[in-house]
TrEMBL record:
Keyword Metal-binding on entry: yes
Residue positions binding substrate: 115-118, 199, 228, 258
Keyword annotations of the record: Carbohydrate metabolism, Cytoplasm, Hydrolase, Magnesium, Metal-binding
Cofactor note: Binds 2 magnesium ions per subunit.
Subunit-level organization: Homotetramer.
Name of the coding gene: fbp
Protein's UniProt name: Fructose-1,6-bisphosphatase class 1
Recorded family membership: Belongs to the FBPase class 1 family.
A GO term, aspect molecular function: fructose 1,6-bisphosphate 1-phosphatase activity
Organism lineage string: Bacteria, Candidatus Roizmaniibacteriota
UniProt binding sites for Mg(2+) 2: 112, 115, 264
Reaction catalysis annotation: beta-D-fructose 1,6-bisphosphate + H2O = beta-D-fructose 6-phosphate + phosphate
GO biological process terms, semicolon-separated: fructose 1,6-bisphosphate metabolic process; fructose 6-phosphate metabolic process; fructose metabolic process; gluconeogenesis; sucrose biosynthetic process
């Protein structure tokens, strides 16, 4: 029997309509990101074939030039977003400077074209992260003023998860019709969950407060369970759905942690708050940090509200 489904496009149009001054340009912007995501997804799916069909830097069996997936995704997002007609400035984790598309364009977008890229070669989940601002001429603005953010997860199925300030919704790609369908309506992070997600290999380099916290959660009556993929998109996606705590803290080698404020931390901190969870850099929300540079990194702890609260009692 036919069951009514909502596509991502229908959903975005309906959400934008609820806003008084809607012009349709946000919908157009998201549609370009959605289309880029579908193209990246189709390439991710074939990534393991590069070795037999042709190596990077060469031409493959179809006489196409083989590009590294992260370079390909980066270029595709630049091209498709520039063509959307909605862009002021674009920033990518792969580039040192922002690109001015049109000084007067309506939106600025920051993206991590392929997050978790060390996992590509081993066929483990990777993703694309994006963060959207109104263009007011200043590209380095606090994450708090984002007008939308989201990610695409290339996993067993492909998911598009985003928020434009009214909760978080997730869509799963139906490959048979090529559309993202609403599958995870109004995602709310569970308030508690004994999952922790951190690169434990850096333990000796962590600050004492972090070591004490980690020791403590392992000694609880119901010890915390470790879950770590090493792709932020996958680790935070699991945290959004199942709860727990995700951490990329400062360590002796990386005092500011590894993750980038504009491309990774802010979009996820925004989504986490929109889903009822929390995110902290030190004791404050990363969303309140005024970025000093495009490539700025910041330590981050995020996830279930009560898990973050518990962590904060250690610092
Ligand atoms: P990217 O592939 O975009 O450079 O990002 C990788 C990031 C992030 O996805 C992940 O959470 C983190 O690196 C993992 O860091 P460790 O290897 O230090 O665990
Ligand atoms: Mn990344
Ligand atoms: Mn990346």
């Amino acid at each position: 029997m036919y069951k009514h489904v909502t596509t991502l496009t229908e959903f975005v149009v309906a959400s934008e309509r609820k806003q008084k001054e809607a012009t349709g340009s946000f919908t157009l912007l998201l549609t370009h990101i959605e289309n880029a995501a579908k193209i990246i997804a189709s390439h991710v799916k074939r990534s393991g074939l590069a070795d037999i069909l042709g190596k990077t830097g060469t031409t493959n069996a179809y006489d196409e030039e083989v590009q590294k997936l992260d370079e390909f995704s980066d270029k595709l997002l630049f091209d498709m977003l520039s063509d959307s007609g909605q862009i002021g400035y674009l920033g990518s984790e792969e580039k040192e400077d922002v690109l001015c598309v049109n000084k007067k364009g309506k939106y600025n977008v920051f993206f991590d074209p392929l997050d978790g890229s060390s996992n590509i070669d081993v066929n483990i989940n990777i993703g694309t992260i994006f963060s959207i601002y109104h263009n007011d001429g200043d590209v380095l603005r606090e994450g708090r003023v984002q007008v939308g953010a989201g990610y695409v997860l290339y996993g067993p199925s492909v998911m598009f998860v985003y928020s434009s300030g009214a909760g978080v919704n997730g869509f799963t790609l139906d490959p048979s019709i090529g559309s993202f369908l609403l599958s995870h309506e109004n995602i709310i992070v569970p308030q508690n969950k004994n999952y922790y997600s951190i690169n434990d290999g850096n333990y000796e380099l962590f600050e004492n407060s972090m070591k004490e916290y980690l020791t403590s959660i392992k000694k609880e009556e119901k010890p915390y369970q470790s879950r770590y993929v090493g792709s932020m998109v996958a680790d935070v996606h699991r945290t959004l759905l199942k709860g727990g705590i995700f951490m990329n803290p400062s360590n002796k080698k990386r005092p500011d942690g590894k993750l980038r404020l504009l491309f990774e931390v802010n979009p996820f901190a925004y989504l986490m708050e929109q889903a009822g969870g929390s995110a902290v850099s030190g004791k404050i929300s990363p969303l309140d940090i005024k970025p000093q540079s495009l490539t700025q990194r910041t330590p981050i702890v995020m996830g279930s509200k009560n898990e973050v609260k518990k962590y904060l009692t250690f610092i």
